[in-house]
Specification:
Elements: H1 15-53, E1 61-66, E2 69-74, H2 75-113, E3 117-119, E4 125-126, E5 140-141
Parallel strand pairs: 3-5
Antiparallel strand pairs: 1-2, 3-4
Helix pairs in contact: 1-2
Region (Disordered): 124-147
Biased composition (Basic and acidic residues): 124-134
Keywords: Chaperone, Coiled coil
Length: 147
């Protein structure tokens, strides 16, 4: 998920290289956001399981999927493991959110450096700074899904 550009000390050579690098950065952000959403769904599922088995008798039999194999355990054994997994997922989500914010900041700095404006699907141009720059040269990039 790394991108070329400022990190390796080389500057993009032309508008197409800038546009490609910009698209790559946006793609990285979208992938990170998707992964965070996926992990948040897993945390939600863990919470449902915890809420379902917590009030039950700790010696009651339950089943847990471990590496594709369904094993029989007791609630007393399974509940702490599910809670640890949930906490681990929440920690990963927290770190990924920090990485996402860092990448968003890098993207906004990149947009400012190369005066990148995003062309909407209907042809309008969105200027990130909210101002029109008369004769300034910049790179115009379409929506992230276009190639």
């Amino acid at each position: 998920m790394s991108h070329k550009g400022e990190d390796d000390g080389k500057e993009p050579v032309n508008e197409q290289a800038v546009a490609n690098l910009y698209a790559s950065m946006r793609s990285d952000i979208n992938q990170l956001h998707s992964k965070i959403t996926e992990l948040e769904m897993e945390v939600s599922e863990h919470s449902l399981v915890i809420n379902a088995i917590q009030p039950l008798d700790p010696s009651r039999r339950c089943y847990r999927m471990i590496g594709g194999v369904l094993v029989e355990r007791t609630i007393k054994e399974v509940l702490p493991a599910v809670q640890r997994n949930k906490e681990g997922l929440e920690e990963v989500i927290s770190r990924m959110n920090e990485a996402l914010e860092k990448k968003k900041k890098e993207l906004s700095e990149f947009e400012a450096k190369y005066k990148i404006r995003i062309r909407k699907a209907d042809g309008d141009v969105k200027d990130e700074a909210g101002r029109k720059e008369g004769s300034a040269q910049g790179v115009l990039v379409g929506p992230a899904g276009e190639n």
